[in-house]
Amino acid sequence: MDFELTQEQEMIRATVRDFAEKEIRPVAAYHDQTGEFPSKTVAKMGSLGLMGMLIPTEYEGAGLDTISFALALEEVARICGSHALIMSAHNTLGMGNIWLTGTEEQKKRYIPDLASGRKLAAWALTEPASGSDAAAMRTTATKTANGWVLNGAKNFCTNAPVASTFVIMAVTDPTKGNKGISAFIVERSNPGLKVGKMEDKLGVRASGTAQVLLNDCEVPRDALLGEEHRGFVNALRILDNGRIGIGAMAVGLAQGALEEAVKYAKSRKVFGAALAKQQAVQFQLAELHTDCELVRHFIFYTAWRMDRKDPLEVSDLVSMCNFRANRLVCEAADRAMQVHGGMGYTRALPFEHIYRHHRRYRITEGSEEIQIRRVAQYLFEFGRRARGA
Ligand SMILES: Cc1cc2nc3c(=O)[nH]c(=O)nc-3n(C[C@H](O)[C@H](O)[C@H](O)COP(=O)(O)OP(=O)(O)OC[C@H]3O[C@@H](n4cnc5c(N)ncnc54)[C@H](O)[C@@H]3O)c2cc1C
């Protein structure tokens, strides 16, 4: 076993940290407060290779591995939850779906613009009446002589307000349940696609989450992404990539909370000394520091396995590190809030955004319960032998 990051991975971490400090930190609060999509910094992220991290260089991606992706997401999330979510959803969900299941022609047509960050992708699975039980979706795709017609509504679609390329899941055979769902690429210019209501969210306010409405939306035959009826099965693979990203972002945000709490504890005086001199406070933050390290390494391990194995082989690991990371960020936000006292509850310090951002982690891309359910399925239904046993 080798626990060293490669020189390239170390360099990526340092470069993204520097970029996030210099380019994202100064604008993060503005975008969070106004909800304005941070187009300028996202374009710079594209120039740095952050919008196509796992895509080979011949398609204008950065050609990196999943550990590098996790490192980069952690660094971005340490500073801003919105920028991290935009990057993660684009890389793993919208563009990720086209990359993993697209034909060569589809890849050539869409990936270079997406991987370079010139254009953004959005991925639409969730609907008003189906989230965790995504296969209960109602959006339909009906075959016609020339292609397909899509009808329905999608909810909570990240990047939708600015995306040029949408991947839409729709029912193609209602008799087959989750084996009767297919994925389609729909371009923003399609008159049958409308971006609807923007969600007014508690946190990650600049990430742009909106409804997507499909009204007799006609697409050609070659808009089908992957095999017909395999859209949902493929979505589970795509979500695994997304969930490792969610875990990395959660660690990044937890790390940000820890750093703010340490800084505040050193500067705040109580009973004649710095708050940081109180052993009770030191212990709280030392435990948090330990948990950040633990979960970070669990994510690295899972990312390392993802790059070496059939992704399905690591699905349970992805869910394990996802829900652990999500619990960590909740613990971190709560402890850091406590250390900040009353000032933590105001907008005066650079902390309260962490408290608002953190809560989404236990909900999105498969809620905490759905992750634990998946681990339980491996334990009780799929008969997975414990690793190393
Ligand atoms: C900021 C944000 C960005 C998002 N981006 C996207 C996106 O880009 N694309 C997209 O398709 N979706 C996106 N989503 C949707 C997200 O994936 C869903 O919100 C999530 O899957 C949960 O679905 P739901 O909200 O419908 O909750 P529900 O499915 O209604 O669940 C409600 C509660 O019940 C619990 N629950 C459900 N089933 C079980 C069970 N079997 N056992 C125990 N508890 C259960 C859930 O864990 C949850 O706590 C986003 C959501 C948010 C908030």
Q: Strands of the biggest beta sheet: in what spatial order?
A: 1-4-5-8
Count of individual domains:
3
Helix amount, in percent?
40-55%
The overall strand count is 10
Amount of beta strand: 5-15%
CATH topology of the largest domain: Butyryl-CoA Dehydrogenase, subunit A, domain 3
The helix count comes to: 10
Fourth-level CATH superfamily of the largest domain: Butyryl-CoA Dehydrogenase, subunit A, domain 3
Structural class: alpha+beta
Regarding quaternary structure, what we see is: single chain
**Second rung of CATH, namely the architecture of the largest domain:** Up-down Bundle
Overall outline: globular
Q: Class of the largest domain, according to the CATH hierarchy?
A: Mainly Alpha
Radius of gyration: 21 Å
Bound molecules: flavin-adenine dinucleotide
Give the uncertain stretches in residue-range form: none
Mean pLDDT: 95
* Main β sheet profile: 4 strands, mixed
Element string (H = helix, E = strand): HHHHHEEEEEEEEHEEHHHH
| Ends apart, CA distance between termini | 17 Å
